[in-house]
Amino acid sequence: GAGVSQSPRYKVAKRGQDVALRCDPISGHVSLFWYQQALGQGPEFLTYFQNEAQLDKSGLPSDRFFAERPEGSVSTLKIQRTQQEDSAVYLCASSFRLGSSSYNSPLHFGNGTRLTVT
Amino acid sequence: GIQVEQSPPDLILQEGANSTLRCNFSDSVNNLQWFHQNPWGQLINLFYIPSGTKQNGRLSATTVATERYSLLYISSSQTTDSGVYFCAFAGTALIFGKGTTLSVSS
């Protein structure tokens, strides 16, 4: 596709509900990143995929957060039993480079999913 | 970990004015990048600038790695320049500062 596509654009969930956020990276991009951006803050790293392999999940804040990329393209970030502190914008980014080399070139971000937990 | 400080936190300009945004680091960093997040949330990469100076239209950036800072210059600002400007560097992941919020009025 022309850019990184994320859906839904907005999501409102009641506390305790499960949510699933989708990311369609740029076609052919092997690296995929998820970031969480709280209001008034910079994006914070959650997890990194190289193709279908999740190589780094050190940023996931709790075991309620789970991400997958089963076929090495589309990725889903799932949050179970949502809490109010999960309210944030969730950003997905992709790169044609691998691993830390991804940072040697511009990273392409989607428009994000704004999650509000009530 | 490495601390990154962006200044000023907020900036209000009249259209046509120039501005300088700064990013300071507590230690040497790699692969510094500048991003613009528009009011609709889209993050756009402006520069990949680990060192030296680059220019792109009305924007330019300079990184002095040995002195652990980077500057983003915006000349003849326009209302479309409004948004949040982030610097970021490669640590274990791409690490972002807290940003400078720029508002340009006509």
Notes on the structure:
The complex is a heterodimer of chains A (118) and B (106). With 118 residues, chain A is an all-beta fold. Chain A has a single domain (5-107), classed as Sandwich (Immunoglobulin-like). Chain A is built from no helices and eleven strands. In chain A, the strands form two sheets. In chain A, strands 2, 4, 5, 6, 9, 10 and 11 form a seven-stranded mixed sheet that branches. A four-stranded antiparallel sheet of chain A has the order 1-3-8-7, with no helix packed on it. Chain B is mainly β and 106 residues long. Chain B has one domain: Immunoglobulins (Immunoglobulin-like). Chain B is 0% helix and 60% strand. Chain B has strands spanning 4-7, 10-14, 19-25, 30-37, 43-48, 52-56, 59-64, 69-74, 83-90, 94-96, 100-105. The relative contact order of chain B is 0.34.
Summarize, please.
Chain A has 118 residues and is mainly beta. Chain A is built from no helices and eleven strands.
Morphology call of chain A:
globular
Helicity level of chain A, as a percent range?
Answer: under 10%
Q: Alpha-carbon distance between the termini of chain B?
A: 41 Å
Average per-residue pLDDT of chain B, rounded, comes to: 93
Rg of chain B over CA atoms, rounded to whole Å, is: 13 Å
- Architecture (CATH level 2) name of chain A: Sandwich
CATH superfamily of chain A: Immunoglobulins
Secondary-structure-based class of chain B equals mainly beta
Strand % of chain A is over 45%
Fraction of residues in helix of chain B: under 10%
Query: How many structural units, i.e. domains of chain B?
Result: 1
Number of domains of chain A: 1
Which spans of chain B have pLDDT < 50 for at least 5 consecutive residues?
none
The total strand number of chain A stands at 11
Shape of chain B: globular
What key attributes describe this structure?
heterodimer, A: 118 residues, mainly beta, Immunoglobulin-like, four-stranded antiparallel beta sheet, 11 strands, B: 106 residues, six-stranded mixed beta sheet, five-stranded antiparallel beta sheet, 0% helix, 60% strand
